[in-house]
Amino acid sequence: MRKITTFLATCFLTITMANAQRTMSINNGSFENWTATPGYSISIFQVFDDYITPTGWHTMSWSIDTTFTIFSQQIPIQTDIPLQKMYKDSTTAPVGNTAAVLETFQIGDIIVNSTVRSKLGDNDTVVMPTILSIGKFNTEPVMELLAMLPRLMSDPSALTMLDTLDFNNYSTGGMDLNGFNVVKLTGKYKYEPAEHSADMGGVLLIGTVNDPSTGKRKIIGGGFNTSLSHTHTYTDFEVGYISFANDPSIVPDKLEILVLSSGGGTVTKGSQLCIDGLELSDGSESIATASSEPNFSIYPNPSKGNVYLDVNGNESVNVRIFNQLGQTVAQRSNCTGKVVFNLPTAGLYVMEVSNSNFRSVKQVVVTK
Predict the structure, then answer these.
(1) How much is the CA Rg of the chain, to the nearest whole Å?
(2) Taking the CB of the first residue and of the last residue of the chain, which one, N or C, has fewer CB atoms within 10 A?
(3) Max avg pLDDT among 274-283, 295-304, 319-328, 353-362
């Protein structure tokens, strides 16, 4: 539990992709169905109250198996404390009848009995985002994973760490893609940060594939958006999926989706993320045919700072380059021939090359 106190809110990339022609529904992606779970009591003491979760989705939990001394009696406690604060939005939901409301909370708020709460020590004051996920995550390991992810985006050499990870140690379940070539997740949100807070909500995608040679489930891609900022009305958002694999033919067979009530650099009690209408898009039908696709190359990759885009033929393209925070660091229009981009800071970048009927996204690594 102590590791939760060192939880690091992560900064993630958000890349806009081509308009998709095919979509894939997410089970209960509009949060119409909810499951009620009973609270927990010991003797005459209520530990935590009943709570609700969208059916088919999961939240974090904290396992307790101990004995407390209360009024000179030894009282055993053996339960999973839900690390969540969730509600239904039944009045302004933009899709269907209900949307999900995730609130950032203080752990002591979950424990309704003051005697039990006093036994938590420093953990009583820990502030946690509500984290909603398709798969069921192991709380301690996933906190370590979330703390690691910023390194993957800022230090390209850290991508080698993915080869040593087995995602089975972090999560069970997830969404079966069944050959669906996911390009982006779309949905609607509104966000109410706590008073005097610059908090923002976040959505995270993790693509994995089973490695039959090792039996491990490897992370091979993902997408991140922690810029769901303050808005009183439901607003469209999207998260682009970026492959980490060198071989573009390697696609995920499972996708994990995490929604965080706080994920944009601060974690403030009382911040609320409302989310609804989640859907996946497949870009396979929106990619132009080979005859209309510009012929271009990007080199060197990795680079020491200067990256060249060489566009062959008469086609022109528009170029945007994003850094690991999702910020546009370079942008040019109607590029033809050879164009040089200077990227002075080491890290992992994403170059988006497009014209009116074509869009391609490539990773660029800069080392120093």
Answers:
(1) 22
(2) C
(3) 274-283
